[in-house]
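Entry 14. Structure prediction run on the chain below.
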Amino acid sequence: MSETGVVADTESALDAYSRVVTTVAARLIPSVASLRVMVRVPGGRRPQGAGSGVVITPDGHLVTSAHVVAGATGLRGPNAGAGGSATFADGREVEFEVVGTDRLSDLAVVRAATTGLEPATLGDADRLVVGQLVVAIGNPLGFSGSVSAGVVSALGRSIPTSEGGHGRIVENVIQTDASLHPGNSGGALADGAGEVVGINTAVVGPWVGQGLGLAVPVNTTTQAIVWSLLHDGRVRRAYLGIAGGSRPLPPRAEQATGRTTGIEILTVVGASPAAAAGLRPEDLLLDVDGVPVANVGDLQRLMTGDRIGRAVTLGVFRNGRRETVDVRPTLLRG
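Output returned:
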């Protein structure tokens, strides 16, 4: 191929890249707001920080990161009030209130005092592949409507979170090299079709790695969390009272169960549902109500509100054989 042909192909590829990014930006900028968060102090309120939010309903609901609105005034209910202000691309600046937060997933829903917004289309992060183009839209350093682009650097990363003494791993976090800075948290990470596949949640500082960003995936699990926050202001989770980790099954267990991986129970909390059911350290948890679990993330996904207070059958491997244990999970409290 001639040098002219190479240059033409390069320019064509760059044009195609630019078209994707500009199209995604035009589609999503109206759906991403800048959030200015207020906290109560003696004698009034003061600014705490800033972040971004993604519109999910025309009547003012936005999804953002829980850490962005942590401590904000104005939880919905008897103490409702302004949690801060939301500024949109069309110049509107309105107050918002916090509808619900879930620190264990680092997701929150707020409602801006306006209507006629353009909801973003939510995609499915489970379809992402490493190397795929993604576009981040948010308000880094207070510069609203900022756009950066990059690729999915890795999938399956995890962020440890905690609330009220309960720990959780936000799993399948998206790692991207799209430039993210303070203020991007809560903003949109979109695929080339303009669908939101992640909520930007963390930036790795320069002392660890420059240009490395993380986003909570938007998928079936996290969409269920968002809708629970929108409708109920909270997420109900079932609690077993165990801690453990994924491990390959020993050959004997693999032959007896047909499984290759399970969760080794390391700790059973005293007076917990797991303790009452007779679970004990070194048990290998294989399945929940017949659904295989290979890691803690699998177990967390199954500990949904509909399992609270009802008999749940756990398949475990102990003493060289497979057994079943019935347990009644309780409500996970912060």
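The CA atoms of residues 121 and 195 lie 5 Å apart.
Filed with the rest of this week's runs.
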